[in-house]
Amino acid sequence: MDLGLHDKTVLIVGATGGIGAATARRLAAEGANVALVARGKAELAALATEIGAGGAKVLALAADAAAPGALDAVVAEATEHFGALHGLAVIAGPMGARAPFHELRDEDWERYFRYGLMIAVAACRAAIPELCKVEGGAVVLTAAYSLRAQKPALIAYTAFKASVASMAKNLAKTYGSKGVRVNCIAPGVIEKDAENSRELARRYGVAEERARYEYVRREFGMEVALERAGRHAEFADPIAFLLSSRASYVTGALLNIDGGTDF
Fold first, then answer.
1. Is 0.90 topped by the overall pTM?
2. How many domains does the chain have?
3. Could you point out which of 207, 210, 232, 246 has its C-alpha 20 to 30 Å from the C-alpha of 189?
4. Is the same domain home to 22 and 52?
5. 193 pLDDT above the threshold of 90
6. pLDDT 10s digits, 116-144
């Protein structure tokens, strides 16, 4: 299916992580221009080289997305380079401290605030004025399965992921009249890497494909119908769809990508 993304420009914040990199590859395969934002210069350069070798137009922008003004500069540079901005995907949102509420320090909450919420806020604030200038502007933000299945050790992480989901719905209602769509995904269990899968498979005596799921099932009591973790590309495909004209009547949605849970 042609997603209608050819020559559209999409900015990906958090581009070198598993889902971010997979999304960049998926969009490039659809013929989109991709602007990649991440802190790791070496990883960013390698991904840009890989994608560019396939013929896609790519712009690598090394930046700390949590730094004041960084995403304003990134959006300005991407728009100037490609002439317009049509889509934004915010994947960044690293995990910080995991602990019960009474053990979390103010610094832990501040970190989740900066990296879990304010990156999405800053990216949207910078990008939406540009998205209002084009036809079919779209945003995809990233929440988490945990906001629907509370875990004591993830209280701070979940609080700000819930804020991201709430913001996405509000932005969809605010900018729908301008033709801008805003959606949010809620990923479930995500594969890490081959080494992690091998280690967990040995630990639990299961096949590598099941290993990550076995870990979250035993450690966190999380049941998944497909009995495995999601592969990075399995999150990238729905993101690409939500950014595309094929999802032209989808906005304000919170999409579970979780392999089948109670939600």
1. yes
2. 2
3. 246
4. yes
5. no
6. 999 999 999 999 999 999 999 999 999 99
Pairing of strands 87-90, 254-257: unpaired
Which tokens is 186 given?
């809620």
Residue 107 is assigned to a structural domain of this protein: yes
Q: What is the pLDDT of residues 204-247, one digit of tens each?
A: 999 999 999 999 899 888 899 999 999 999 999 999 999 999 99
For residue 260, being part of any structural domain is answered with no
In a domain, residue 50? The reply is yes
> Given a cut of 90, is residue 67 above it in pLDDT?
yes
Residue 257 lies in a domain: no
Question: The tokens of 102 are what?
Answer: 């009474």
Q: Give pLDDT, residue 150.
A: 87
Query: b or e along 211-245 (b: 16 or more beta carbons within 10 Å of the residue's beta carbon)?
Result: bbbbbbbeeeebebeeebbbebbbbbebbbbbbbe
Residues 169 and 225 both lie in one domain: no
pLDDT of 198 reads 93
Q: Indicate the average pLDDT of the chain.
A: 95
